[in-house]
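Exercise 3.2. Students should predict the tertiary structure of the chain below and write it as structure tokens, then compare their answer with the key that follows.

Predict this chain's 3D structure.
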Amino acid sequence: MKRQPLILSLILVLAVIGLTLNSCKKDNTPVTLSLSTLVAGSIDLNGATSPTNVPVNAAITATFNTDVDALTATASNITLTRDYDNASLDITVSASGKTVTITPASAFGNGTLYKLTFKAALKSTAGESLTADVQRAFTTEGSFLPAGTFAYWNFENNANDQVGTFNPITNGVTDITYVDSRNAAAGKAASFNGTTSLIEIGNGDQLMNTTDFTLSFWIKEDTAGRGDQFVMGLAGWYGFQFELNNISGGWCKLAAQYSLSGGTTASQDLWFNGAATGTTKDNGGYLGWTYSQDLSNSGGVVSLFANQWAYVVCTYASATKIGTLYINGMKMKEQDFNLYDNTLKNATGLQYAGNVDNKQLVFGFIQDKTAPTITDSWADYTNPANNHYKGLLDDIRIFHRALTTKEVQLIYASEKP
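Answer key:
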């Protein structure tokens, strides 16, 4: 009978050891990887509502509940995509302990929705994965604007380039006033008097020596008693120039020099006459004209510009050799250089071909007033009757890439009056 306490004691000891072993086993079980916090700068990306004010230059920091395996924290397992075209952004990913930092290779575009995805292949240092892909969305601050602006003039009481160094030359702003633009968000616009107003921007050749090109601007033209108007120009057709005509329905065009594969250049007009019943290569037009919007029943081109704000975009894409003109987010004219039967089918981009002493891009006329390339009397700045531009200009942008139709439409929708 005296052995029973000993046996009971042994049983109790074994039970305690078993409990201890089980407790240790539970403590050593790896925990499933999960996202704890996610921020862009100081803005929470992990909340119930997706933020809409993320800075365009923000780095993104994710914190997990346990240390992350750096070998799995890669751009393959963590992706950042742009919503409107589903393009994957180039990012750098680094991991240290529980923290993963995602840094885009370039700034985000304004007013753009992005999606960040952590794939289930992401693992902890203990080998535990996310139970499923984790996705978070956010929108950057401001009105929509795709990344990659090369030069930008917003005319907020000055004519300085807001993203680069393409500022007016010394004494390069002549008789310009700044007035309210199309809406409060747009701020100010530059006003041109139609006789002497001019803005001269230095090193204009650098603006167009590129394989892919976009010119984008807002315009409110004063058409009273005016026929042709030279809105802007870089040595006229030796560089590029945008012109409007208000007679018989009107027309508009971007005349430009294009680089050819043999090292020479040739000029071509992206010319749009919407009153000509949609003229194309199959309808009395030139070989390269593949599309032309018919505005003959709505007053022609002038109806889009006369004394009202309009948004104009001209693009050239070297990969396809397609030039496109948009007005108010709609494709108005398209030309395919592949279809031309001359050297233009070999165009590789845009290239300045003017006088080396005249490289000023000017707003308000066809060429610079002090060193003109075109010597004809009609291109003489000193004559106030020579098609000087009269009206307002705002948010002039140049890209060294061809904006897509979707991007053009989103800019227009975001910035329209």
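Discussion points: The chain is about 10% helix and 35% strand. The CA atoms of residues 137 and 324 lie 32 Å apart.
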